[in-house]
Amino acid sequence: MKHRATLLLALLAIPACQALAQLSQVGLGWAKNAVNAPVFRKNSVVSFNGTQYTAYYDSTAHLVVAKRKYPSNHWEVRQTKFTGKVSDAHNSISIMVDGDGYLHVAWDHHNNQLRYCKSLSPNSLDMSELSPMVGTQENDVTYPEFFKLPSGDLLFMYRYGISGNGNLIINKYSIKEKTWKRLHDVLIDGEGERNAYWQACVDARGTIHISWVWRETWDVSTNHDLCYAKSTDGGLTWQNSKGAAYKLPITAATAEYVSRIPQKSELINQTSMCADSKGNAYIASYWKPKGEQVPQYHLVYYCSDSARWITKQASNRQTAFSLSGGGTKKIPISRPQLLLKENKGKPTTIYLVYRDAERNSKVSLNISNDARYSKWETFDLTDFSVNSWEPSYDTELWKQASTLSLFVQNMGQGDGEHLESLPAQPVYILSLPAKLKAKSKGSFTTK
Fold it and tell me: What is the pTM of this model?
């Protein structure tokens, strides 16, 4: 059956025939687990100079790269010679295009050797051979993520070490020198006792924001607390939200705690964050509020006017679940993606993208433009289930045009890295603009 985007969302002041959300099929992707769509793909889809790129594993576990002239539905699709261990849902693909137009790709990582290449020329899908970045501490890589700086240079973050005992490493790529260098061997140090599971973003001014939870062991139930750091000089030095300098590496004793959350709170790791034009950071996650049994999405944000962190509930879920154990979990909700849109003279609009079994596992969106972020409206962006999918989006297109482009695919996920019997499923890019008229699927007010 041909899927479609729910035709509820439309641009203001554009003729209706041009205003519908676009669902563009790229190809068929591996679907027996969620390796093509964990939330920590940075990125799954990315734009540069009017060309949009994406990547995924196909049914034979080959790395596929593709591009189109946005918003054309014609994709140029290239199956590379590279493959990945798709049976492990950690081993996702991350891509980014640098300021000169070269496509960078890292894939197939879960405590193993770095697998990285880049295109042979700008705007090309022809990829180089495997290559190192800096050549050290590249034998135990997990969670590779690219971030683009305003200069066109790139950052590359990854965990070195294992769950419960790992450190955050940062490399930087220079488009002038076309080489990588190490910024920090250990930015956030678990001191052999724990590790940080982070999310990060780069704002319009080039400030790098990182937030993280600590995990004490391999067991997800030992996630706790939410911490924060930022860098205003390209990642060389780091400070807390008040501007006080960190002595590096950051440890559990020196970190700024923006929300205290105990272990066994169903707190998830690796979610998303963004920042406004003032440099205020916004973080999305989910956990179980104190004294309650149902995990809820939460928005944690820094208010520079009052110089404090504020936590607001961003969902009104009714179904309890519990997180424990290791490996990729089969969870009834996805980790959230968070975006914001500033409105002159009005409160900033918050967008929370997610999937929830309570909504039949469709691609869903919660929106709040209330000054206190207490009033929310809910929308479904697809009329079909995406099963165990998690959201990731084109960060660069959002920055350039406030257009949301999501990587969307129906996919399975057995608990603890087990596979489900699901044949290859269509890979879509779902695009819709930020200024939306919509018929709400519901509304709620939170504490």
Answer: 0.94
